[in-house]
Every structure is written in C-alpha cells, then in structure tokens.
C-alpha cells in the first residue's frame, strides 16, 4: 500500500493577551496557522475519512480533536436517532389501533437498529 499525505493545520495558542477571546482575525489568523504533514496508509486514510464523516467534521478537525484528546462524537448518527425518536412519538400519538401501532413500532425498531448499526 502506498502512503498518502495531506496537510493538517493547527493554530498557535490563542490565549495570549489581546487575542480577542481566542479568535484571531484576518491576517493574524493566517500567520498563526501551522502545517503538519502525516502519511497514513490507504486503509488508515479511509478510516480517518469515515470517522470524520460519521462525526460530521472535516478530516483536519477530526485529526486535531483526536490529537488533543477531544472526544469524537458521531453527531450525524445522534441527529438521525433524535429524528427517529420524534418519529416514534408521532407513531404513538397518531396510531388508530393496537395492530397499527404494533406494525409501525416494528418498522420504527428496524430503522432505529439500522441507524445504531451504522
């Protein structure tokens, strides 16, 4: 497998005096960015891309968070599950009979397991 490289940009510590609450502006921001090159294998690169997609982040943001020990959450899956729970609430509120409720809940359960399973 060949190695693939791509840049990772980091900012210097922004907590110094006069740093506008840690958010740099314009030209100052460009001067503070640093570039780190990594060389993952093809398989590692695909895993990183998949993790970034599942967490709804850019590859760079995902790598920075992982390097700094920030928890990587799968926001996309959480959002889908929240939507599915709202759907379950609608099923419970709108169901006309016990049989309809059973069928709709079974359908919802299948969809929920699909979301959880990835």
Question: Could you characterize what this model shows?
Answer:
- By secondary structure, this protein is mainly alpha-helical.
- The protein folds into two domains: 6-67, no CATH class; 75-117.
- It has five helices and two strands; from the N terminus they run βαβαααα.
- It has helices at 26-32, 42-54, 59-67, 75-94, 98-117; strands spanning 6-11, 33-38.
- The longest helix is centred in the C-terminal third of the chain and has 20 residues, at 75-94.
Please render the helix and strand layout as text.
Elements lengths: L5 E6 L14 H7 E6 L3 H13 L4 H9 L7 H20 L3 H20 L1
Antiparallel strand pairs: 1-2
Helix pairs in contact: 2-3, 4-5
Note the total helix count: 5
What is Rg?
22 Å
Note the main sheet: 2 strands, antiparallel
Low-confidence regions? 9-21
**What sequence of helices (H) and strands (E) makes up the elements?**
EHEHHHH
**N- and C-termini, Cα separation:** 27 Å
Total separate domains: 2
Helix content: 55-70%
State the secondary-structure class.
Answer: mainly alpha
Overall geometric form: elongated
Strand content: 5-15%
Cross-sheet strand order for the largest sheet:
1-2
Overall strand count: 2
Mean pLDDT value: 76
Short description, anyone?
With 118 residues, the chain is mainly alpha-helical.
Short descriptors:
118 residues; mainly alpha; 2 domains; 5 helices; 58% helix
């Amino acid at each position: 497998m060949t190695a693939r490289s791509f840049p990772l940009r980091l900012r210097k510590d922004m907590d110094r005096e006069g740093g506008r609450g840690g958010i740099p502006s314009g030209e100052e921001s460009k001067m503070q960015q640093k570039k780190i090159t990594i060389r993952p294998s093809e398989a590692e690169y695909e895993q990183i891309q998949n993790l970034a997609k599942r967490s709804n982040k850019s590859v760079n943001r995902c790598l920075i968070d992982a390097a700094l020990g920030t928890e990587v959450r799968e926001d996309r899956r959480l959002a889908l599950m929240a939507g599915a729970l709202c759907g379950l609430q609608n099923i419970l509120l709108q169901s006309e009979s016990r049989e309809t409720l059973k069928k709709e809940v079974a359908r919802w359960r299948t969809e929920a397991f699909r979301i959880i399973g990835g």
